[in-house]
Amino acid sequence: MKAVIxxxxxxxxxxxxxxxxxxxxxxxxxxxxxxPIIVQxxxxxxxxxxxxxxxxxxxYCQDNSKEAFSLLMKIKHTPKFEQIxxxxxxxxLTDKIDSQEAxxxxxxxxxxxxxxxxxxxxxxxxxxxxxTAASYVTQIIDENNSKNSILNFRYLFNPNNYTRYTxxxxxxxxxxxxxxxxxxxxxxCREKEDGTYDMMLMxxxxxxxxxxxxxxxxxxxxxxxxxxxxxxCNFYFAIExxxxxxxxxxxxxxxxxxxxxxxxxxxxxxxTTMQALISGFSCCLVLILTSGLLTxxxxxxxxxxxxxxxxxxxxxxxxIWNIYLEGKSIFDILDLLxxxxxxxxxxFSIAAYLFRHRIDN
Amino acid sequence: xxxxxxxxxxxxxxxxxxxxxxxxxxxxxxxxSYKKICLTGPDGAGKSTLLKLLTGVxxxxxxxxxxxxxxxxxxxxxxxxxxxxxxxxxxxxKELSVxxxxxxxxxxxxxxxKDSTEYLYSLLKKVDLLQFKDRQFDDLSxxxxxxxxxxxxxxxxxxxxxxDEPTVGVDPLSRKEIFSLIDEYIGTNEKxxxxxxxxxxxEAATSDFALILEDGQVILKGETTDLCSKVVNQTYxxxxxxxxxxxxxxxxxxxxxxxxxxxxxxxxPRLGQINLTVKxxxxxxxxxxxxxxxxxxxxxxxxxxCSLEDVYICYGMKNHVFVEPDFIKNMNFQKSDDIVVQVxxxxxxxxxxxxVEKSSFNVKKGEIFGLLGPNGAGKTTTxxxxxxxxxxxxxxILVNGFDLSKAKNDARxxxxxxSQKFSLYQNLSTKENLVYFARSYGLKRDxxxxxxxxxxxxxxxxxxxxxxxxxxxxGVQRQLSMACAxxxxxxxxxxxxxxxGADPLARRKFFDKVLELSSYGTSVIxxxxxxxxxxxxxxxxxxxxxxILILGTPDETCTKNGKRISVKQAFVELIEHNRDKEDENxxx
Lengths: 361, 588
Prior knowledge:
Chain A: InterPro entries: ABC-2_transporter_component, ABC2_TM, ABC2_TM_bact-type. Chain A: Keywords: Cell membrane, Membrane, Transmembrane, Transmembrane helix, Transport. Chain A: It is a multi-pass membrane protein. Chain A: Residues 118-358 form the ABC transmembrane type-2 domain. The complex is a heterodimer of chains A (361) and B (588). Chain A is α/β, with parallel strands linked by helices and 361 residues long. Chain A is built from 14 helices and four strands. Chain A has two domains: 10-48 and 162-357, no CATH class; 55-145, abc type-2 transporter like fold, CATH 3.40.1710.10. Chain A has a four-stranded mixed β-sheet with strand order 2-1-3-4, with helices on both faces. In chain A, helix 7 (163-194) runs antiparallel to helix 11. Chain B has 588 residues and is an alpha/beta fold. Chain B is 34% helix and 26% strand. The longest helix of chain B is centred in the C-terminal third of the chain and has 21 residues, at 567-587. Chain B is globular, with a radius of gyration of 25 Å. The interface between A and B is medium-sized, with 27 and 32 residues.
């Protein structure tokens, strides 16, 4: 019995060493594994934000009251707002928005002081910026209207309400999804094309040994990548890690294991590396888009939300937010981790099934 | 002048091993009168490189090349239209149909497609492939692909045909057809000629000028008929009476590859007898004395007409460095009756297509068993089923007593497998590959170290331990594949066209190893397109269209009217006869 287990471990070890060597031996492939991830992290850090630092607006004001004047001054002195035109008619206002010179058009009708009526036009060709810009104005107007009861917003877990925080932290897992999925999707296909697949099957390795041997290298590489990304978030972008490091590490490994099963399943189904690459990539896109990282799950139709709930990336990303930003430990978020583990078991079983039954083709 | 090469210099850049010089101060001239020129030599001799230099695909670093007075230049329309090149990888479009491929290559060479459809059809008809004209190129069998690639080269009616191993991996039947196509082309077009490379010496023998290269040097050149006279008086046949015939495993180690002062350079079974090639100036009496001393059986030594292959072996062995072998002569090989592979009524269907029809055979311990058949006959399918890489639709396979459908992993521990294509991890070094396979077969550290040391020595891989296996010369890759398959001391070794593309000398050394293994009790199952290799087999079968046509020892299967014929002849006649019969039945 002992000898059987020893041999089995030796075989898995052989596979793992071989996988690491094939992935990491070339200097160029080492660069490809780590350089783009870091570059992407900075791109997301600076580029992926729904915040507006600069809101150009046009103004058409028909009211000369004191109230109107004070509101206008408030808007004008808000640092994000820049008045680019003062119009004399509606036509001019819409024109400025059509030509994309202004993101907002503010129209104050004649009897504003009495009716408190105000019209805001926004350029909804880009919904996200339109909403944000509109909400800025609303906030100013609200403050202006309710002199006695001022609404004070406090953004918990993200004091300055930086969208960058949530996206970046989510991306610590999101970017590694791409890596794990592609590495594992290519690993079997490459062997099929090189003819080494047969050689691997000819060794006395059992299916689960092959799967484990194939899974560990991509998981380890993706874990290292996630750690690098977290370090950048923590030290460079100064986003404080609220939770404990152990929980974070557990989550990352569990998450990567859940994804790698999917990659291996894709790899056994595809015949060429080209197919695997394209399938892997499309899969990544779907996984990330339905995860709730970039868009809110709450905004999706009910039936679609069920699909999103079957997405391991969804649980992973919510879990990392919980740990990183809220400081929860793994035991607090079992409601996210258990489905993640279940999904991992499912993808692995599919991969194992395909591995065993796809040999004939 | 047909070819005029002066002071050619050329080297390849590689990552691991730096610049590899292929040619240095290489000069060679050839008269215009030759029609069929053959290039041969071991792997890495520079055959393909030379052909590529002649077509202008590669540019020389120094020196000049002239082909019928023109400098090879792929931008020179006049030059391009006068030659056609068929590369080893064929270079056709896999996704396109046969006829589209033909049209593209004809059009690229300036043929008017509208007027030439009929002509292209007639070409296809000539090789009997007209019914496949709309088939996707990738779906054709190996032999058909090779024929289509040749047609693409011929279609534009070039003056010079340059063919790089046009028959590698092709069965004897298709080889015959390919060469009759070439002969017909150069026979009917007066100005045309063909320059080709080949590892088959029987093909080289049909050329009128042969050039043997080694390490970028011409080691022998001349008119083919003259070349044979170089080793006259060095070739013999050793004949035994039927009951006295020694086992090849008892005598193969009498050559100078095993015994330093042996007069015998080469010894191999042919036509039921043993062919000998001996050192220059060996007296017949000395030879007889040597043979009497080592073979305790009665024999008759006869002179034999020499072939190009003998010339090749003699010249190739000149630079052979003798290494003391650790193989100890085993002079009384005992055949065993233990059955190690038992195949019972297996059948394999892919959809509606029956790839293998009810087949049964047994392989005994220490036996060398051959699977022969034309491309697409079902050999590889049968082979893969016995290895457990495919599951049979019906029937039963027992490997070393293990039922393959139940105990695949136990069976696999006792199998070694060398595939047709080089299938090791190209990114990994020689040593890393060896270690990977050793571990995969569960060899513990101390055993692993010993085995690897031994096998590295056996296959002389010392120089290449840290080279990426993908950058090794082909010959070394072949050695390494075999080494990896033998690390765990398998009881059965599977060789799937393992000698494809190898030169005769490399094949001899390969079979020395096979015979060694076999005499220690390892069963070896081989598929091959070199029919003379089947002479080494204890038993072989010939398969076509999924059916076993014949099964038996070489002497049983290759006899016609009481006379022993070559395996190649028996093979070709059997397949042709069977196909005619089947086609008749179909029509009826």
